[in-house]
Amino acid sequence: MTRAPGIEDPRPLTGPADGSDAREEDTGPDRTWASQRALMTHLSPQRWRMAAGVLLGLVGSVMGLAQPLAAKRVMDDMSQGRPTAGPILMLSLLVVTGAVLAGLGHYVLQWSAESMVCAARCRLTERLLRLRVPVVERTEPGDLIARVTSDTTLLRQTAPQAVSAAVTGTLVTAATVVIMGFLDAVLLCVTLGVIAFVGVIVAVVAPRIGRATRQVQDAVGHIGGALERVLGAFRTVKASGAEHWETQALHRAAEHARHRGTRAAAWEAVSATASAVVVQVCFLVVLGVGGARVTAGTISVSTLVAFLLYLFALAPRIGQLVEGVSQFQIGSAAAVRIEHIETLEAEQVKPEHAAQHTRGVTARGDSSDMAAEDCRSPLDVTFRQVRFSYRPGLPRVHHEVSFTVPRRGLTAIVGPSGAGKTTVFSLIERFYEPDAGCILVGGKDTRQWPLSRLRASIGYVEQDTPVLAGTLRDNLTLGVGDSSGEELAQVLHMARLDTLTDRLPHGLDTHVGHRGSRLSGGERQRVAIARALLRRPRLLLMDEVTSQLDAANEAALRNMITDAARSTTVMVIAHRLSTVTTADRIIVMEAGCVRAIGTHGELIKHDALYSKLAHTQLLN
Ligand SMILES: Nc1ncnc2c1ncn2[C@@H]1O[C@H](COP(=O)(O)OP(=O)(O)OP(=O)(O)O)[C@@H](O)[C@H]1O
């Protein structure tokens, strides 16, 4: 398959690769509200578990809050010569129980965070596999991977802390303030001034943290995309000696992420430092004002000590609140990136059809219902005046393409590179929809077919014969689930793979490496053919499947294809005309049009292009 000049490179879902600020405009209140709503969507299913975690933490905090009062009681009893054993025991109990409850609350919150992220990952992965082919072609797979892995991790790290800090921090701060008010109203006014000041800082800085975090995650997505690009063509990069250039590109992406990361860190630092400094200043002011009031005899030393203890307790709570707001912004940024996948266009598959597809029931005719027999019959294919371009603005790839392929028999499609042959198969598989005209499979418009049933009826061997990481067995049974040893042996024999399984150390259970890297090109091609045959397709589509085979294997597979064409509809795309001279009909395509249809003999006589192709390949 060739790629037309002018086709843009796949790009990430958001943000340009040059690092310019694509999201600068995403800062309005609507955007902030939307990002918070996105985060709440993830949090709400876990609300009860989170509430339990927060409650435990809260009770722990309340016990912590009672500790200064208990300490004050110990000091008062000591100074007045009363027995102190009881108050000391109470203080110890408060310390231990408070710590245990706070720890338990933390555990329950983390548990809910794990459940939340697991649910998000399951939903995302399901969605990703249902995305439409053109949508995925326009994205960077690395960026999609980053959304499922790094963004969900960020969500897990931030969301429960944000909720816990918001609830616990607010309540404990309020309670502390009330108690401080009882102790001394003047000192409380100083403290409230501090809280107000911190509030202003948080209101200014928090949205900037959220925005900076989104930019960091976008930049991390770029690194994923760049890595995926290089690792996906690892040998090509090495053979081209392009490691240096590609490393430079990765370094640029890493630098960009660092730049974004430091900006986010700077805003977080501003927020944390401001709250810390202000709390320290407040402590000094309270110490000064409180000392003067003790000297004047307005309050007792124990009251000042208790007030200072509360202030000490309040400082981390204010820090926690500020941190909570920051975490909320970070979690919202991650949630927005995750949510974005949900907005991408996906294929509509009814659940029952998807399940059937997974078991391969329809394709393999295992169903015992009345339609079972019909489910096995071969499918004819008709293209009626099909017009198609891959995207609006791109050149048209098919111009009024029309042809009919009857049930059973071998139909070949030939023509120069870029003529639109592979596109015919992509349209039959409904990876794309035609712009005009219609495509009938089994007499029914492909748009009327339940998508998974359509695909389950077709065996498609692609041009670049992808093999997935995993065992040979996994690759053969992809999409059909368990298959009997007999079935497997049969298709392995048909694809001339039986000698390969004998050679492999663990037979069918041998791992074939990333993208089948431990297999030869010809072996990969035959694995793809065996996989398609195992589905017992009603329509078999084969795109250049013999290009990497030696003469003996090619001849054997030609015979296999001829055999298969007796019981099912077989369409093959071939550059080597030697593989299709015996086809029942040959469709000659050129520049997106069907220029002739006939047998080899007829076309040699009547079609100049075919005759020329045949002549070049020394066939005539
Ligand atoms: N995913 C795609 N997005 C945009 N354009 C595409 C895409 N796939 C193919 N094209 C363009 O569509 C045209 C037809 O491609 P197609 O793969 O159908 O040709 P082909 O006849 O199978 O070529 P070949 O014999 O080289 O495999 C080409 O110009 C190609 O660049």
User: Strand order, biggest sheet?
Assistant: 6-7-8-3-9-10
Number of strands: 10
The description of the largest β-sheet is:
6 strands, mixed
Mean pLDDT: 81
CATH architecture of the largest domain: Up-down Bundle
Structural class, judged by helices and strands? alpha/beta
Please explain how this structure is put together.
This protein has 620 residues and is of the alpha/beta class. The protein has 2 domains: 315 residues, ABC transporter type 1, transmembrane domain (ABC transporter transmembrane region fold, Up-down Bundle), CATH 1.20.1560; 244 residues, Rossmann fold (3-Layer(aba) Sandwich). Strands 6-7-8-3-9-10 form a 6-stranded mixed beta sheet, with helices on both faces. Helix 1 crosses helix 9, helix 5 packs antiparallel against helix 6 and helix 5 runs antiparallel to helix 9. The chain starts with 28 loop residues before the first helix and ends with a helix. Bound molecules: adenosine-5'-triphosphate. The site of adenosine-5'-triphosphate has 17 residues, from helix 13.
Concise account of the structure shown:
With 620 residues, the protein is of the alpha/beta class. It has 21 helices and ten strands.
Question: What key attributes describe this structure?
Answer:
single chain; 620 residues; alpha/beta; ABC transporter transmembrane region fold; Rossmann fold; 2 domains; six-stranded mixed β-sheet; four-stranded antiparallel β-sheet; elongated; disordered N terminus; binds adenosine-5'-triphosphate
Write the layout of secondary structure elements.
Elements: H1 29-43, H2 47-79, H3 85-130, H4 133-137, H5 141-183, H6 185-232, H7 234-239, H8 243-295, H9 301-343, H10 351-359, H11 361-364, H12 372-376, E1 381-388, E2 398-405, E3 409-414, H13 421-428, E4 436-441, E5 444-445, H14 451-456, E6 458-461, H15 472-476, H16 485-494, H17 498-503, H18 521-534, E7 539-543, H19 551-567, E8 569-573, E9 585-590, E10 593-598, H20 600-606, H21 608-616
Parallel strand pairs: 3-8, 3-9, 6-7, 7-8
Antiparallel strand pairs: 1-2, 1-4, 4-5, 9-10
Helix pairs in contact: 1-9, 2-3, 2-5, 2-9, 3-5, 5-6, 5-9, 6-8, 6-9, 8-9, 16-18, 20-21
Residues 1-4, 7, 137, 390, 394, 397, 417-423, 463 line the site of adenosine-5'-triphosphate.
